[in-house]
Amino acid sequence: MRSATVIGLQWGDEGKGKVIDAFASEADVVVRYQGGGNAGHTVIAKGVKYVFHHVPTGILYPGVTCVVGNGTVLDVVALKTELAELTEQKVALSNLRLSSRAHVVMPYHRALDEAREQARGGTGQIGTTKRGIGPCYADKASRTGIRLADLYDPQRFAERLRRNLDEKNAILVHLFRRPPLAFEPIREACLDAAEALRPYVCDTARVAQDALREGKRVMFEGAQGIMLDLDHGTYPFVTSSSASSAGVSSGAGVPPAAAGKVVGVAKAYTTRVGSGPFPTELLGEPGDRLREIGKEYGATTGRPRRCGWLDLVQLGEAVRLTGCAGIVLTKLDTLAGFGPLKVAVAYERGGKRHDGFPADEAGWEELTPVYEELPAIPADPSYLGATDEDQLPGVAREYVAFVERRLGVPVSVVSTGPQREALIRRGDVLGF
Ligand code: IMP
Asked: What is the pLDDT of residue 375?
């Protein structure tokens, strides 16, 4: 099989959008397999900015089939708007395929997401994107969800919607003291969006399976990052899907081996949006400065991202969990001129080295990172956007080599700026 999986190795926002965009032209088929409108990829191609939430960025390449798999959750009204915006930007959508088995994020999911977050209050909040992701996946697991296919059977859809809405309204009104949602506007908006999506809806597992059988090059595109994975992330401060390479099989409808070579994307430092453990977080002025230099604001919600040093303990865990065989290191340019750099190489607990990754929140609070200091990378605009390793100052090359040595995984690409071309290729990436 000629396949590869590109995933985030940190808490999302690693720059996967740019990486996937840069390599999508080498694939025949790109498949999203989890997540939904909580994701946000920004791509700048030929000076034009495109923002994606549901649609794979590969859609920018006319010859690439773009699949949104059964493991995703789709806000059909938002998706309709996303498609309209892409059409306005002259992006052809004829190669888009949406899984008839993908679950639909309904307005009551968003309302519950928001109500639960507010009820958790302050530090208890997960800091979700409020896109209804958790409640939608919860309904999927409870077997009360509505799938894309259901929207094309208006009567059955109306029955399920009525049943679900009665239950959700009872929770919204009696538990959260919120107004109930009206049935008819939701029904109409969903059926209207379903018509707009109809040309693209199909059995996408078949599309992926056929492509693999025919020897086509298939790239699976992860959303979020491994630390937000429902099972292996910093629970409960996670998203509700399998953001790891393990999600490929169930989320796309292909055998586990189809994930192929796993390529992990990691920022040269660390960021996270929302609450939860972040051992190497930089608080105060340095964190604010890193956020400003790196323009670290969420593509989906515009929220400021928390910023911190690169954490090789966390990345080591990510490598073990995902089996990643190559790393794309992004935003190295942001560190230029930042001053002496620190990289976490171990954790300590109670003054002693701590091996392992805590499962509980209290465990995280007791950890302190052990840092190694690396020399500052000088601020020099001449190497921003570099495409050749020789253009980088020695200290920047040493930073990359340090990451490689410590993780035991080659850094096959270094990203040096936001433009599509600003990449240094140091080896084979997707391995097709
Ligand atoms: P949810 O996915 O909206 O339920 O949010 C759960 C957690 O995942 C929150 O901390 C969000 O900030 C985070 N999250 C969800 N999607 C993304 C993403 O695409 N990038 C970064 N963080 C995300």
From this structure: 96
Instruction: Clarify whether residues 118 and 220 are in a common domain.
Output: no
What would the two tokens of residue 404 be? 């490689």
Asked whether residue 277 falls in the same domain as residue 387, the answer is yes
Are 131 and 75 in contact by the 8 Å Cβ rule? The answer is yes
Please tell me if the CB atom of residue 138 comes closer than 6 angstroms to any atom of ligand 1. no
Same domain flag for 89 and 166: no
What are 259-304's pLDDT values in tens digits? 999 999 999 999 999 899 999 999 999 999 999 999 999 877 889 9
Q: Which residues of the chain have pLDDT under 50?
A: none
Name the residue among 37, 30, 32, 80 with its Cα closest to residue 60: 30
353 and 412, same domain (yes or no): yes
Query: Are 234 and 311 part of one and the same domain?
Result: no
Clarify whether residues 305 and 220 are in a common domain: no
**Overall domain count for the chain:** 3
Question: What is the residue with the minimal CA distance to atom 5 of ligand 1?
Answer: 128
| Short-list 323, 217, 248, 204, CA closest to 1 | 217
Give nearest CA residue, ligand 1 atom 8.
239
CATH of the domain at 214: 3.40.440.10
User: Does the C-beta of 274 come closer than 6 Å to ligand 1?
Assistant: yes
* Binding site membership of 36 for ligand 1 (Cβ less than 6 Å): no
Task: Tell whether 173 is covered by a domain.
Answer: yes
Res 51: pLDDT: 84
Q: How far apart are CA 369 and CA 59, in angstroms?
A: 41
CA proximity to 307, closest of 341, 280, 327, 343: 280
How far is C-alpha 45 from the chain's CA centre? 20
